[in-house]
Design goal:
The structure holds two protein chains of two kinds. By secondary structure, chain A is an all-alpha fold. Chain A is about 70% helix and about 0% strand. In chain A, helix 3 runs parallel beside helix 6. Chain B is built from 13 helices and five strands. Classes of the chains: A mainly alpha, B alpha/beta.
């Protein structure tokens, strides 16, 4: 059940109706939301509910046992078991086939042909997201940052809460669980901003992202048969498509949740307006980057053990962040490139004697920074989107062969039009600092803009393209 | 702690409803205005025909157009149906040559990539409302009957939600609404084109080329026998037979297709498509393929339709590795063998028809 389908909106109307009918009983609201979330998940594939229930049970139990235990070694053992269960489940479904295939190829090249059993697993929807939810819960309890929840119902809802279940944002237990364990207020302001977020999300997903596949897919499928301007167009459009697809999903998720009075984390803040690569990672997939920072980079030592260790920690974090996106070397390289950018950026700052954290850039400084940062990010998308390493390298070779540059002007309108549509939303959001910016506008401008956006959504509705991040 | 309720200040709530009503009124006005614009002859003349953009996949309209052209020129007496294995494995030209149908009614390949039995049933209805073959030869593979195949489910879902499919096949309220919209609303028909133009800066992206011939067949030149053993593992594709069972909604859909066509007076033949030896490695349990054969055989018996099992050894045709492009798709050499073999069986069947 995708967010951009009539079925989802029918489902949402029923859920909201029941939710509002149970207005004075938040416990029953939670029960209803839990059932609705499981139904939402089962609509994709009910058999994988078992995996989610297993992960939920293990982490709930681990949380209780860690909290009750006085023995630090026992607490550590329980945490290790919980983390191993989460990562083991994730690896089993996501990475076993990848590592088996990689090992087979490596041994074959070394002249030691050996066949591992090839496992072609179907990836349970949202597993990368909900295992990160549960790991954060167990680690926070181990660290003493959070007390375990007493109610299995509330914890199960935290794991399975349908707006954020399949593609995040990866909301921390410290943020979401307190909201699930108390009455929620649904105010007209929340409803208005929630509806605005849903409209903006649908606009990004249905109007922009879903309209770009026809231009992107054929080029990435066979880069060798396209000119450099066509490759540039496909690359620029993919950068926009993945942003609008994922940010659109997050907008809808946050909007839907806000209709129930529950706040979810912001996941994107105009990442392509970043003045440097470090800022990019504070604006792109914020919930993942902060998760990796808090549960991987800092435990590795962060920046506390000298420059070299800091750089090594950055690289490890970004490489694993890349691998999180998918079981393929192209994702590892994508993460590695971002890690390299971050290392170089921090090395330059250290050399100039500047503090680790950059000041916010304004005016021409921001524009100059964007002019450097955006092409660097653009380059990494080649690896993210290409079906394989050979294909990515072929893409880059063709791109920098500068063949057929005389036709560059022909592809410019196709690049500019969707970017302008996106900027029509991003610029007001960036300038106002408000994602649901429409509600702050004067009535005439607000009504006209909302009507035009809704009209465009209705015209574009029906492509039924799945959200790109569902596959991760 | 605020109570969980929507009751805030009543005035704000009224303002919210009023604002939503204004936006909806503007949207309805916009839709009506755009409908008027799209009805203008000059506007329609300036835009490409919208049909190709309306189906669940880009080349459906080309398939339908090909069928219509052949039907008009020679008449279509045999229609092949199935997924990509049928698309590359059944060559109508060879089939016609082998059954000495050089002129007169011809065969057409209506196979579409990825369609499971439920979508094949739907497209059997779409095709037979446009042409009237005497016989449909449905090429079946294990994945067609597996209700657990993610790709099969995705394609079936897309087909089910295609407005054009609903308009062309469904007689319920939704189908009638879609039919009405396709017939009466220029905006509804042209909206995918308008969307593509809006995000393309006034340019339309080139749609994928038509890669099948005028008879709907794809000629595949690859040879499985030339793939080094070390690379064979990459050809495995578990998706279609994942968590395999031949029982469920797809088997029900095939039974429904048998009943539909019987009602229409169109003969149906089921063909179990040949598979390479390595294909069986896709299954978690080797006996699953046997379960599939048993179910297919059962469906054929219950529905009283012939089943030609081309995966079993036959005296007149043997499929070798060189006949396959990969583990399950026949290449053009394999297609020639299979099509000729099917023509012989067709002739045998015709000779015993009353």
């Amino acid at each position: 059940m995708l967010f951009n389908t009539p079925e989802f909106f029918a489902f949402l109307v029923v859920v909201l109706g029941l939710y509002y009918a149970l207005a004075r009983r938040w416990g029953w609201q939670n029960r209803m939301l839990l059932v609705a979330s499981y139904l939402f998940y089962a609509a994709w594939d009910w058999r994988f509910l078992g995996v989610m229930l297993f992960i939920t049970g293990v982490n709930f139990l681990a949380g209780r046992l860690m909290f009750d235990s006085e023995d630090p070694r026992q607490r550590k053992r329980i945490l290790a078991l919980a983390v191993a269960t989460n990562l083991g489940t994730l690896c089993y479904f996501k990475y076993v086939g990848f590592f088996a295939e990689s090992a087979t190829r490596l041994l074959d090249r070394l002249g030691l042909p050996m066949t591992f059993p090839m496992l072609h697993m179907i990836l349970p929807l949202g597993i990368s997201f909900y295992t990160f939810h549960t790991m954060a819960y167990s680690i926070d309890i181990y660290r003493g940052d959070f007390k375990p929840v007493r109610s299995m119902r509330d914890f199960a809802l935290y794991v399975s809460y349908f707006p954020q279940l399949v593609a995040g944002p990866i909301v921390r237990p410290t943020y979401l669980l307190p909201q699930l364990q108390a009455p929620r207020a649904v105010t007209p302001e929340k409803v208005a901003t929630g509806l605005a977020l849903i409209l903006i999300g649908l606009f990004r997903k249905v109007v922009i992202a879903d309209g770009l596949g026809l231009r992107i897919d054929p080029v990435f499928r066979s880069p060798a048969t396209h000119t450099s301007p066509e490759l540039l167009m496909a690359l620029c459009l993919f950068a926009l498509q993945i942003y609008c697809d994922f940010a659109g999903y997050t907008d809808i998720a946050r909007g839907v949740s806000r209709l129930m009075g529950i706040e979810l984390w912001e996941n994107f803040r105009q990442p392509y307006f970043s003045a440097n690569i470090s800022e990019f990672w504070t604006r792109w997939h914020i919930s993942l980057s902060t998760w990796l920072r808090d549960y991987l980079y800092i435990p590795l030592g962060g920046n506390r053990h000298g420059q070299l260790r800091t750089y090594a920690n950055l690289m490890i974090t970004m490489l694993l962040g890349g691998l999180w996106h998918g079981a393929a070397w192209t994702f590892v390289i994508w993460g590695g490139l971002h890690g390299t950018y971050l290392v170089v950026y921090h090395a330059i700052r250290a050399r100039r004697g500047l503090p680790g954290r950059a000041e916010a850039a304004h005016g021409w400084q921001r524009l100059a920074g964007m002019a450097v940062t955006f092409p660097l990010v653009l380059l990494t998308w080649v690896f993210f989107r290409s079906p394989g390493l050979a294909s990515a390298l072929e893409f880059l070779r063709q791109l920098f062969a500068f063949q057929g540059m005389a036709t560059l002007w022909l592809v410019l309108p196709a690049i500019a039009a969707p970017w302008l549509l996106s900027l029509a939303v991003d610029v007001p959001q960036f300038l106002s600092g408000e994602q649901a910016f429409l509600v702050r506008w004067r009535p005439a401008a607000r009504f006209a803009t909302a009507a035009v956006m809704l009209l465009l959504v209705l015209i574009a509705f029906g492509a039924r393209a799945p959200f790109i991040y569902f596959q991760f | 702690v605020p109570r969980s309720s929507i009751s805030s200040s009543e005035a704000k709530l009224i303002a919210l409803v009023r604002n939503a009503a204004i936006v909806l009124a503007l949207v309805i006005g916009g839709l009506l205005g755009l409908e008027w614009v799209m009805r203008q002859q000059a506007v329609q003349a300036a835009l490409p025909q919208p049909e190709r953009y309306l189906w669940h996949a880009d080349n459906i309209q080309a398939k339908l157009d090909g069928l219509a052209r052949l039907d008009q020129a020679r008449g279509v007496d045999v229609l092949f149906l199935g997924n990509s294995t049928a698309l590359s494995g059944l060559d109508p030209t060879t089939f016609d040559e082998a059954r000495l149908h050089d002129t007169g009614p011809a065969a057409y390949n209506g196979a579409l990539e990825g369609i499971p039995a439920s979508a094949a049933r739907t497209f059997a209805q779409v095709y037979t409302r446009r042409a009237r073959p005497d016989m449909i030869i449905y090429a079946v593979t294990p994945q067609d009957l597996n209700p657990n195949s993610p790709t099969g489910r995705d394609v079936a879902d897309r087909v089910r939600h295609s407005g054009m499919v609903a308009a062309a096949t469904q007689d319920d309220a939704y189908g009638q609404l879609m039919h009405w919209l396709v017939d009466h609303s220029a905006l509804f028909r042209y909206r995918p084109v308008l969307h593509a133009l809006a995000v393309g800066g006034g340019q339309l992206a080139p749609l994928p080329g038509i890669y099948f011939d005028e008879r709907g067949w794809v000629s595949d030149k690859k040879r499985l026998s030339e793939v080094p053993p070390a690379d064979r593992a990459r050809l495995l594709n578990k998706d279609g037979v994942w968590d395999y069972t031949p029982i469920g909604e797809q088997a029900v859909a095939l039974a429904g297709m048998i009943a539909d066509l019987k009602q229409q007076g169109i003969r149906l033949v089921l063909v179990n498509m040949p598979v390479s030896e390595g294909y069986l490695a896709n299954f978690d349990h080797p006996e699953d393929y046997q379960h599939y054969l048993t179910e297919l055989s059962q469906l054929s018996k219950v529905g009283d339709v012939p089943l030609w099992d081309m995966a079993s050894p036959h005296e007149d045709v043997v499929f070798e590795e060189a006949d396959f492009a990969d583990l399950i798709h026949l290449n053009r050499f394999g297609a020639a063998k299979l099509s000729a073999a099917l023509a012989r069986r067709w002739q045998a069947l015709e000779s015993v028809q009353p």
